[in-house]
């Protein structure tokens, strides 16, 4: 309309200037013409208004406080417990230590280093009697956990940082079966000291291959008196139960606002939006679920997940993380034992309103959803859970035993080891065996650890299967000392993921975790792959990729496979695929150890020693890359010892020199391990 009205204005001014030149008739005609034009302009169809799109009602993003110093000042806290956690244990220990602070007359908070500005550590001296505790787990081959990666980078990069006002201590979580035992905790402890911080208590080393809980409890017992002494405060040692969350029941709530198993965003399983990660997993349909072993008691399986349209990318050697759910029969059993309605909608709200962690799991939700999707109900509970729940046992004997197991006395530790750990008792078993124990379900839900994602080495190559991810796993099932049958949560859940279930496609919530377990950059480098049992998984991807490279006309180095299983006719996994790869020349050597097909057990390390000349030639002369996947406790150590022997004998070295030689291969990325215990 603006442009048209300006045209009218210019026409009117022109008429005024030339009016004297016109006759009366001319004036009449011009007036008529102007009137027609004006009428046309004023009454022409107006242009369509541009529609205004109504903004979606999205909640305003909550501003998250990234200054832990300001938060501590605001809430009167003097102790902060940072955690580096991959499976939830580091976070659990951090929460326990922050609760402990209250028992000793101090105020603590647990904190995820990923959520805060760690450069503020130098400012902690602004808070009187302040202390930073670091519960740091080591992941993979001496790596930081995902949430501690930025903190690790910051420590490495900031040589000029002055942390002289920082009081600190570190508790490390690791596993002795791994090469780089507690590497992250040791590094943080050493690095903070190098930057001028003051260590007020010795580094604690927790070993998950032994008894991590006992290691933590023993360290913690000595730690708190030392802290009290350091700050000159009296150790109150208040042993009463401290609640972190309060329950709220929702009697009238829109069920669209209730979480039904989503990990992050509400209704994220109904409306899937990339990118997909740990907080936003993709629901991948299961397209294949078949048994791999021909016979035997065990169930080894091969699954294929469809990632079409997800924009998910992966490489050979990466891990797929899946979010399992607990068996509904166990969830119902827990509800029966506690005599509660599991379908009540609740929220567990943090009593500390300033905490970044508002709920222990997504809320509002039902107890059934929490116990199915969010909480680990099958692992043996830690001592702090027993201690907190003891008050709810009506039988004084049960109460006494629970408190004893949570104590540091030798008798208590022995009872916890035998009655809980060695007997593989879950919280359900404890409630069954202690009928007088009837805790409120909300307190139990507060204490139980989160159900964690499970990681599997991907058994396919994206070059060959860009829209599919393959998993190879063995179903975990065993009998306990109490005569019960315990089943692995994730593997039994995967086993039951049929391609179609009552006409519906079965789906698996998943995301990709990148790995350092990679084929050599140069395809001409030989590779030696050692993977007995389900340790073959990543090598199926490697073999597919080397085959694809050959098809592209690329020159590919020797590809050697060492596989092991119990019996050739029972659990020779992927036999047809491996023999076909050997036949076509993709595998230049296939060595299989059938451990129980003869009187004396034969393992992969025996085959390595048998082929020592070829192994040494490939490694020492042809720059071969060595890959090991599988059991960390025995196999990986035995294989490493075999490489020491081969290096010592054929390299003419002492054992010390041979050990150094293999360690250098590790440093150069030519000896890689993807192992578990």
From TrEMBL:
GO BP annotations listed: response to hormone
Keywords linked to the UniProt accession: Endoplasmic reticulum, FAD, Flavoprotein, FMN, Membrane, NADP, Oxidoreductase, Transmembrane, Transmembrane helix
Family annotation (CDD domains): CYPOR
InterPro entries noted in UniProt: CysJ-like_FAD-binding, FAD-bd_FR_type, Flavdoxin-like, Flavodoxin/NO_synth, Flavoprot_Pyr_Nucl_cyt_Rdtase, Flavoprotein-like_sf, FNR_nucleotide-bd, NADPH_Cyt_P450_Rdtase_alpha
Chain sites annotated for binding FAD: 454-457, 472-474, 478, 488-491, 676
Binding-site positions, NADP(+): 298, 534, 595-596, 601-605, 638
Name under which the protein is recorded: NADPH--cytochrome P450 reductase
Organism encoding this protein: Amphiprion ocellaris (Clown anemonefish)
Gene it is expressed from: POR
């Amino acid at each position: 309309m603006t442009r048209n009205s300006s045209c009218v204005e210019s026409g009117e001014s022109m008429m005024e200037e030339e009016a004297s030149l016109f006759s009366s008739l001319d004036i009449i005609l011009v007036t008529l013409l102007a009137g027609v034009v004006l009428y046309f302009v004023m009454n022409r169809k107006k242009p369509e208004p541009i529609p205004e799109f109504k903004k979606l009602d999205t909640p305003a993003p909550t501003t998250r406080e990234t200054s832990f110093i300001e938060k501590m000042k605001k809430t009167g806290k003097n102790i902060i417990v940072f955690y580096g956690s991959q499976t939830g244990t580091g976070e659990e220990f951090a929460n326990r230590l922050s609760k402990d602070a209250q028992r000793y007359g101090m105020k603590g908070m647990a904190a995820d280093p990923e959520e805060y500005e760690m450069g503020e550590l130098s400012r902690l001296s602004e808070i009187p009697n302040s202390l930073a505790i670091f519960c740091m787990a080591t992941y993979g081959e001496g790596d930081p956990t995902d949430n501690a990666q930025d903190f690790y980078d910051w420590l490495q990069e900031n040589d000029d940082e002055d942390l002289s006002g920082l009081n600190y201590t570190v508790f490390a979580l690791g596993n002795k079966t791994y090469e780089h035992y507690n590497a992250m905790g040791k590094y943080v402890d050493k690095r903070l000291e190098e930057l001028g911080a003051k260590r007020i208590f010795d580094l604690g080393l927790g070993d998950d291959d032994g008894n991590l809980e006992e290691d933590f409890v023993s360290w913690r017992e000595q730690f708190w008196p030392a802290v009290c002494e350091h700050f000159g405060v009296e150790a109150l040692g208040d042993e009463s139960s401290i609640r972190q969350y309060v329950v709220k029941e929702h009697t009238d709530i829109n069920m669209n606002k209730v979480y039904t198993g989503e990990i992050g965003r509400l209704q994220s399983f109904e409306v899937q939006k990339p990118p997909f990660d740990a907080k936003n997993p993709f629901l991948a349909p299961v397209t294949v679920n078949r048994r791999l072993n021909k016979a035997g008691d065990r169930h080894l399986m091969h699954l294929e997940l469809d990632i079409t349209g997800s924009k998910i990318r992966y490489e050979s050697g990466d891990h797929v993380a899946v979010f399992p759910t607990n068996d509904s029969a166990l969830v119902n059993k827990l509800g029966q034992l506690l005599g509660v309605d599991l379908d009540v909608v609740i929220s567990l709200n943090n009593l500390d309103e300033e905490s970044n962690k508002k709920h222990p799991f997504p809320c509002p939700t039902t107890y059934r959803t929490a116990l199915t999707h969010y909480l680990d109900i099958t692992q043996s509970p830690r001592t702090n859970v027993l201690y907190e729940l003891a008050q709810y046992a009506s039988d004084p004997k049960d109460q006494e035993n629970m408190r004893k197991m949570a104590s540091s006395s030798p008798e208590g530790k022995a009872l916890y080891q035998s009655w809980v750990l060695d007997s593989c008792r879950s919280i359900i078993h404890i409630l069954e065996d202690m009928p007088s124990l009837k805790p409120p379900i909300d307190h139990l839900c507060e204490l139980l650890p989160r159900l964690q994602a499970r990681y599997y080495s991907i058994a396919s190559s994206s070059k060959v299967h860009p829209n599919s991810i393959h998993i190879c796993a063995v179903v975990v099932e065993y009998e306990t000392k109490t005569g019960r049958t315990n089943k692995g949560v994730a593997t039994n859940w995967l086993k039951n993921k049929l391609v179609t279930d009552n006409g519906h496609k079965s789906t698996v919530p998943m995301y990709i975790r990148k790995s350092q377990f990679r084929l050599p950059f140069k395809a001409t480098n030989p590779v030696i792959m050692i993977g007995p049992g389900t340790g073959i998984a990543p090598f199926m991807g490697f073999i597919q990729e080397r085959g694809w490279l050959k098809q592209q006309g690329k020159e590919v180095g020797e590809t050697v496979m060492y596989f092991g299983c119990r019996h050739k006719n029972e659990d020779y996994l992927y036999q047809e695929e491996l023999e076909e790869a050997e036949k076509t020349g993709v595998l230049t050597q296939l060595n299989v150890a059938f451990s129980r097909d003869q009187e004396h057990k034969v393992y992969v390390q025996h085959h390595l020693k048998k082929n020592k000349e070829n192994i040494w030639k490939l490694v020492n002369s042809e720059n071969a890359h060595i890959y090991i996947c599988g059991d960390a406790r025995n196999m990986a150590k035995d294989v490493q010892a075999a490489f020491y022997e081969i290096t010592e004998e054929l390299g003419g070295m002492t054992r010390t020199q041979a050990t150094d030689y293999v360690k250098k291969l590790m440093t150069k990325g030519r000896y890689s391990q993807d192992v578990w215990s």
